[in-house]
Structure formats: structure tokens, C-alpha cells
Amino acid sequence: MIIKNRMAKRKFSRKKSKKKTSSSSVKYISIILLLLILIVVLGYLSYKGWNSKQRTNLQPLSTVVSTSMGPVEYFSKGEGQVILLSHMEGSGADNLKLFDGLTAAGFRLICPSRPGYLNTPLNENATYAYQAELFSVLLKQLNINEKVIVMGISAGGPTAIEFAKKYPEKSKALILINAATDKIDSTANLTDALRLKSIPFLDEKSDIASWLVYNLAKYNTRKVITSLLEKNSKYAPADREMKVAELVNLAGAKEDLLRYLESVSIYSKRSEGLNNDLNNLATYKPGSGKIRIPVLIIHSKTDNVIEFSKAEKFKKTADNAELYSYEGNGHAIWLEEDLKNITAKTIEFIKNSKEVIPYEIGIAGTTWVNKSDGALLQIKSDGNFNLDFPSVDEKKFYQGKAIVVDDQISFTYNPGNETCANIAGIYRFVLNDGNLELKALNDDCKMRKQHFAKGWFKID
Questions:
Q1: Are 179 and 306 in contact (CB under 8 A)?
Q2: Taking the alpha carbons of 218, 221, 225, 228 in that order, is the dihedral positive or negative?
Q3: What distance in Å separates the CA atoms of residue 133 and residue 138, rounded to the nearest whole number?
Q4: Taking all residues of the chain, what is their mean pLDDT, rounded to a whole number?
Q5: Residues in contact with 221: Cβ distance below 8 Å, sequence separation at least 6, in sequence order
Q6: How far is the C-alpha of 412 from the C-alpha of 168, rounded, in Å?
Q7: Fold of 366-458
Q8: Backbone angles phi, psi at 446, to 5 degrees
Q9: Residues of 369-400 as b/e, b for ≥16 C-beta within 10 angstroms?
Q10: Are strands 70-77 and 107-112 parallel, antiparallel or unpaired?
Q11: Contact residues for 114 (Cβ-Cβ < 8 A; gap 6+)
């Protein structure tokens, strides 16, 4: 009987113990779930705060203007010679913030958001030629009549190239930094580099991904820099590790990285533009004709996104081009030493470059007579022109600049002329059996446009 009682007590004790264990397990699971919920809530609140801050940071410099081609957003900073910045892929007008060294050196930076980026809507046919025209319309809207230095970064290169080709009368020089200058046969490297696919959770349309990568960079700078160099440079693993160690130990490395990540954050406001860039790059071919203005091509030999050979090839298409090569961090130019190096070279080039004297290609040094009223047009080899109306009024006489680039002429009357002073007009010319025919491409001077349309011929 005693043995039976003991066995019954043990059985009861085991049941009681199981109930306690079960109760404890439920309690622990509940605590873990509560902690997870708390972490998710705090994380979401952190994300919302960061997202709001990033959007707020875009507002002070952002201006959206209405143009004949629709709304265009731009950032403007600094005073002095205007540098028109065609921003890199995945960014926007805020790309300008990475070039404080140029504004500090006395330049004014104007950076439009290209179509599909931030607050510039995407047009169905937003080719690079279209974007160049959009830039020209923006300058007109801003009453900027002096020549600008046009600068293209990475996938912003083609827009800068098309602008320099199409608007030589508005371009003082062209600067290309690790820029696309021709089609990219495979966008795999470019896509991976832009979207940092080796970093977990990243998706180009996800704002949460921006926040995750930003925080990863804050607490594991080495991880993000390593990922950047893996995708953007050609360094072998051992050399890359040495490079990463060097970069991480630089003063301000984390701040540089975070500033760059801010300029490509909020993917939902940039993804349309990025995808448009990737589509355009797959088929891009520069427009016909050579670029006559001074050109600086800056390109890393270790660039794994846009091959250095592309820069070498493009140099041959420009008559007055300098190619500056360096090793650096490949396509990731936003880290301390590369950006300082690029900024210094850019400033040196701008200060030392001279405006090109227009080129004589068969129409200079000749007097042309208008078929309609006998007016005389003389285009000189030094880049000046005279327009005289002896048969109408001996006192009616105009002078100005004539820039000849391939099959186009840009006419600008000098200040002091009573009609259309400082207004440039671009014409395509055709030499046909000794006759000079001019076709207006872009001219806001109605008098000149109507007069030139009547045709010219050569004095025998």
C-alpha cells in the first residue's frame, strides 16, 4: 500500500512539473513574440523618421520650373561660371551635393533631375538627345545666356555629350567623369553596381532597402565599401581587401559613404529614371559630328562598370580632348581620395582651357550674296562675321560671331546691334554648286530667321 501511494505521488508530481514547464514555455514564447513585435515597431518608426528626414533634406535646394517641354526640377548652388551637371544614374538633382569642392572654388553648379528622377516626370521618349534639349530649354527659362561647362557623370555622360554636340553656342567645355560614351552591350555590371545586389534585402524600388543599406553602412562601413568595390572595380580579392582597409581607415570615410547613399536613397522616386537609363544605354550611339570645344575625360583604369577603353575610343572623336586616367576605386568615385583628385583636376582644366577658335571648313573667307535683296554675308576664318545691306540701306550693318561645327553654323550678333543682340541662332548649311543654303534649326530672332531662309550664293 505504501509503495502504491509513493508511485501515485510521483505520477502527480510529474504531471505538475509538466504543467509548470508548459506554462513557462508559453510565457517565454510570449515574451519573445512581444520583443519581436517591439523590434519591428521600433524599426518601422526608425525607418519612417529616416524616410521623412531624407525627403525633407531634398527640399531646400529643389526648384521645379515649368518649361515648354514640361516641368523640370533642378538644384542650384554657388556663384560664378556655370557648370551644368548631368547627374549619374540612380541619383537626381541632389547629385550636386557631392561636388562642394567646385562651389567652394567659385563655380555655380546647376543640376537638373533628368526625366524619371525625383520631381522631373518621365517622358515616353526620354532619349539622351531629348534630355539635352530639356537642359537647353531649362537654361533659357533661367535666363542663362553665357556659355556653360557641361559635365556628365557615369550614365549622365550621354546627355552631356548630346548637349555639347547640339548646342556648341551654349557650351564652353565638356567634362566626362567615368562616363558612358557609347552603348553598353551588357548592363549586368551596371545594374548590379547600381543596385548593390550583393547587399541583402536591396531592391531598386524599395525605400526600406535604402534605410537598411544606410544603417548597414553606419554600423558596418567595411561591409558596404567591400560590396561597392566588388561591383565597381577590377581589383583581385587580395588587392581589394588592401584597398578596403585603406579606405576604411581614412578620416571621413563613413561620412563620405553616407553622403553618397543619401544621394541615391528613396528609390521609389528614382527607379523610373534608372530603368530609363538602363534601356537607353543598351542602344545609345552618339550623334554625328565631332565635338570642337575643349573636352576633359576623367576615367579610372580599374572601372568595372564602364570600361576604360570606352574613354580611349571617345577621345578620338573630339579634336581638343584630354584623357586623364587614374587607378582609384573604379566606378565608385564618391570616396574621399578619388573625389578630391577628380575635383582638383576639373578645376585645373577649367582654369587652363581656352575657348576654341571656330574652324574653317569651306565657307569662311568668302562673301555670300543673298538671292533676295543682295545683302552681303561674310564669314571670316577668325570666327567673326559681317552682314551688310548696301542695296537697302548703307547704314544697316551687323557684326557678330559665327561658330562653324561640321554642317552647322551658330550666329550671334554682337552687343550694340539694334536687332537680336546676344541671341544665338543655329543653322544647318548645305553647299550646293557654289550656293550656300541655310536651314534654321533653332533661332528666336525672327528677322534673321526669315532673311537667312531666302538663301545665299557665292560671288564668283
A1: yes
A2: negative
A3: 9
A4: 82
A5: 248, 253, 254, 257
A6: 12
A7: Lipocalin (2.40.128)
A8: -65, -40
A9: bbeeeebbbbbeeebebebbbeeeeeeeebeb
A10: antiparallel
A11: 86, 87, 92, 120, 126, 131, 134, 156, 159, 273, 277
Percent of the chain with pLDDT over 70: 82
Structural Rg of the chain based on CA atoms: 31
With cell 561591409, the residue in question is 223
Cell of 333: 568615385
- Reported as half-sphere exposure (CB side, CA atoms, 13 A), residue 342 has a value of 28
Task: Please identify which residue in the block is written with the cell numbers 531629348.
Answer: 130
Q: Which residues pair with 107 in a beta bridge?
A: 81
DSSP reduced 3-state for 225: helix
Would you kindly state where each structural domain of the chain is located, as residue ranges?
Answer: 1-58, 60-352, 366-458
Distance CA 249, CA 254 (A): 10
* pTM: predicted TM-score of the whole model, two decimal places: 0.71
Closest CA to 261 of 300, 307, 227, 211: 211
Segment (H or E) for 4: helix 2-58
Least confident of 21-25, 210-214, 341-345: 21-25
Amino acid in the structure at residue 12: F
Q: Which three cell numbers stand for residue 113?
A: 533631375
Instruction: Provide the CATH number for the domain formed by 60-352 in this structure.
Output: 3.40.50.1820
Strand partners, 63: 74
Q: What letter would DSSP give residue 168?
A: G
CB 172 within 8 A of CB 149: yes
Task: Pick the range with the lowest mean pLDDT from 59-63, 345-349, 366-370.
Answer: 59-63
Q: What angle in degrees, to the nearest 10, is found between the helix axes of 2-58 and 207-219?
A: 100
Q: What is the largest CA-CA distance in the chain?
A: 143
CA–CA separation, 398 and 34 (whole Å): 83
Quickly count helices (H) and strands (E) in the chain.
13, 16
